[in-house]
Specification:
The protein is mostly helical. It is 64% helix and 2% strand. It has one domain. Strands 1-2 form a two-stranded antiparallel sheet.
Length: 360
């Protein structure tokens, strides 16, 4: 919205700053952070009054989780509100990729909100049917995949780019759309599975988003993409504004989600943020790199898949409990130890993912 101020610029005054993505990204970050600090406590108070007993706690989970009974959920509203406000304020709203990531984020947030509402209103851990959630997620992802493909340069449409191998493109044809759908839906649900401990999901999401934001900025500039030998995707640089809002809003949320959490992210936040990561990866043609940067989410999701399949086949469990962060809880690791070590792993994976920009 503020980008229109560039029309008042003569090229050498204050208004000219609004032409620069880096300046507007800083503005988006600060806007989202302040939003989080201003509205965090009022939102928590409203959620606590409305939800009464808060998020239901699983009886078969780690014993330490029973102490968290009564903690309100749907804290993802704070993050989504912050990033949407900051993006609308600071991004160039004529950019199609901005609306693409906003569409995916808000759509998955609505699915998560419905699931959270069903849980707290019925005081059960079973919310919206898993099949319905997946169906709606795939519909949203299909729209996003076609949307992204339409605005990709002709040479990149329906193509799968590989990290490290700069000239390698695999033409998936019509299969690119279902592939992109799996990336977006898989990312949304992987983050959702990771959100099981205070502060566990939000920091890895911010780290992954920051890494993808750097990638979006690089591939959206012809000079940087040429220097790094990565595929140039014009317009994706504006996604950096969205990412800055996400990181700022995430930090504002973490202020209240730090142990002991005053509010949980809920599916409202985890599905929205996971979907956003997938959408950014599809928009920037870095779907495979997302699997590296978001490797923690991949492992969390795989631990559940392995556990379920192995149990159905043998009646035995591979892990003491899935997702894998609960396995370490059962082994006696302190919650803070698991959270911080998973943060470290996320940061390492993000650095490896960013390194693929130069390893060509």
């Amino acid at each position: 919205m503020l980008y229109w101020l560039t029309a008042l610029s003569d090229g050498g005054d204050f208004f000219n700053l609004f032409r620069y993505i880096t300046f507007r990204a800083g503005g988006a970050f600060m806007t989202a952070l302040i939003f989080g600090f201003l509205f965090g406590r009022p939102l928590i108070n409203v959620l606590r009054r409305r939800q009464g007993k808060g998020q239901p706690i699983r009886d078969d989970g780690p014993a330490g989780h029973l102490a968290k009974a009564g903690t309100p959920t749907m804290g993802g509203l704070l993050i989504v509100g912050a990033l949407v406000t900051s993006t609308l304020l600071w991004a160039r709203l004529s950019n199609p990729y901005v609306w693409l990531v906003l569409f995916v984020t808000l759509s998955f947030a609505l699915i998560g909100f419905a699931d959270d509402y069903a849980k707290v209103s019925k005081q059960t851990t079973a919310g919206v049917s898993g099949k319905l959630r997946l169906l709606l997620g795939f519909v949203i992802a299909a729209i996003a995949a076609v949307w992204a493909t339409h605005f990709h340069p002709p040479a990149l449409q329906m193509q799968l780019a590989f990290p490290i191998f700069k000239d390698t493109l695999l033409n998936l044809g019509f299969l690119f759309v279902p592939f992109a759908m799996i990336v977006i839906v898989g990312s949304a649900n992987a983050v959702n599975l990771t959100d099981g401990l205070d502060g566990l999901a939000i920091m890895p999401v911010m780290i992954a988003a920051a890494a993808l934001g750097i990638i979006a900025y690089m591939v959206g500039r012809v000079d940087f993409s040429d220097y790094l030998d990565v595929h140039y995707v014009p317009g994706t640089g504006e996604i950096t504004i969205f990412v800055a809002g996400l990181v700022g809003g995430g930090l504002g949320f973490l202020w209240y989600n730090a142990p002991p959490a005053a509010v949980f992210m809920g599916d409202t936040g985890s599905l929205a943020l996971g979907g956003a990561l997938g959408a950014i990866a599809v928009a920037t043609k870095h779907e495979i790199v997302l699997a590296i940067i978001g490797g923690l989410f991949v492992v969390e999701a795989l631990s559940v898949i392995i556990q379920v399949l192995y149990f159905k086949r043998t009646g035995k469990r591979v892990f003491l409990m899935a997702p894998i962060h609960h396995h370490y809880e059962k082994k006696g690791w302190a919650e803070s130890t698991i959270v911080i070590r998973f943060w470290i792993i996320s940061l390492i994976l993000a650095m490896i993912g960013l390194a693929t920009l130069k390893l060509r």
